[in-house]
Amino acid sequence: MALRIYNTLTRQTEEFAPIEPGKVSMYVCGPTVYADAHIGHAMAAIIFDTVRRYLTYQGYRVRFVTNFTDVDDKIIRRANEQKRDPIELANHYADEYLRHLRDLNVLEADVYPRVSEEMGWITQMIGGLEEEGYAYRLDGDVYFRVKRDADYGRLSGRRLEEAMSGTRVEEDARKEHPGDFALWKSAKPGEPSWESPFGPGRPGWHIECSAMCLHHLGEVVDIHGGGNDLIFPHHENEIAQSESYTGKEFARYWMHNGMLQLAGEKMSKSLGNLITIDQFLKEHSADALRLLIFTGHYRKPVVYSAETVESAERSLARLRSGLRPAQGNASTGEAADKLRVATEEARAGYIAAMDDDFNTAGALATLFELVRAINTARTAGVTGPFYDAAQQTLRELAGILGITLEEPAAAAASDVAARPFIDLLVAVRGDLRTARQWALADKVRDGLKGLGVTLEDSPDGTNWRFESE
RNA sequence: GGCGACGUAGCCAAGUGGUAAGGCAGGGGUCUGCAAAACCCCGAUCGCCGGUUCAAAUCCGGCCGUCGCCUCCA
Prior knowledge:
Blueprint: E1 4-7, E2 12-15, E3 23-28, H1 39-57, E4 61-66, H2 73-81, H3 86-103, H4 119-131, E5 135-138, E6 141-144, H5 160-164, E7 181-186, E8 201-203, H6 207-217, E9 221-227, H7 231-246, E10 251-257, E11 260-262, E12 265-266, H8 277-283, H9 286-294, E13 302-304, H10 306-321, H11 334-355, H12 360-379, H13 385-400, H14 413-434, H15 438-450, E14 453-458, E15 461-466
Parallel strand pairs: 3-4, 3-9, 9-10, 11-13
Antiparallel strand pairs: 1-2, 5-6, 6-7, 7-8, 11-12, 14-15
Helix pairs in contact: 2-3, 4-6, 6-7, 9-10, 10-12, 11-12, 11-13, 12-13, 14-15
The protein binds one RNA strand of 74 nucleotides through α1, α5, β9, α7 and β12.
């Protein structure tokens, strides 16, 4: 079985084969940095992080590039409102975003290009397009001439004529065609601008990604990704520019993730119905968010609600239960053998699911089955290499999804200080139990429970942990 | 109006021709002094109607509903 990926361009699931065997180049459109990132952004980052991790697991050397849009109308407006420098404002939110990515256990990209640092490449590309007749100047602006691009619209499935009828696009009478889009915008007072062969100004929205792709990954990339809200016009226009410029196919596989839905609506800045990454991480772990996302399919919308988050948290606790230490001494025998088989089946099932266009829900199902096998084996007293291998496999396969399975670090400094006291109470309760003083023993347990400490009695003694809530 | 996606048990969700994975919640049980955890058992004919087929959740047509894009958007 080989990896198959759904390609938005062909609307089909295709077998994945990179241009250069063993190597994969990936470009993912990053955020426009002008406000706090929300968990919809996190979802996109997490999904492509997992695509990357799985490709790496499959032995590919992945070069991963994701950008920051730091020159943009919204940034400028926001900066003016706050009387700040636009680039400084953008840098602030870009730094925040990088911090979020670390908190979310997203692997670092090879490069994080920013528009403001790629002007040379951008203007060079615009110049090239103009020379070949793909672009024209208009009062200091430069526009892309969609009519020159014979197959414009093939990613989003729109024809030029159709695309324009019934839209709310404000027609700019100066443009040759209403679908023409800006490559370069002339400088205006109060806006940052850069010198260029077309006069001072700044780039349009779409050209940046084309230029950065070209600069950092070459003329053709294997995988180009982003949210499905970018298909039109952003990615459509990227294709138009890039392919007109290089004369080559721009990206082999176009991958688009579905949107996170809050109360049945897409979570977005403009709708204002968002939960920021910081807000989420204050209450929940990154593992929980990943589990929530991977319960569904990356191309479909994900339902975010108090209930689905709670469900993800509990599912996570269940996955963690598979990592509890062995408690017997049967390193061989029927039970150990069963576990060995279950471990092999889990890995095979996991790979089959992930190979099928990253069917993470199916992959997770195999993980839950492995957990049950481990827990059953533990109860049967299994220990030793097979037990260790099963847990190691669980860690490894969860790791491809970026799920750490670490106990939540709810234990703040004060909690750490409380540990010896809790240990003492648990020990005293143990004595009470030995003395069959059930009422007092239960009083201790209930009291601790009320303080967020859960006790579990087992044949080997009493374990306790802080409630992850 | 145009383009596209989706509708599977209380909730989330996989499955795209051979009588439905997994998780959460719920019920019953084993274990336990009790509890918790773990483990075992229990639940859906797949929005509606019609068609193709020996056989459809899975293909085709119609209808209803939800969502996304067409304007900045992960």
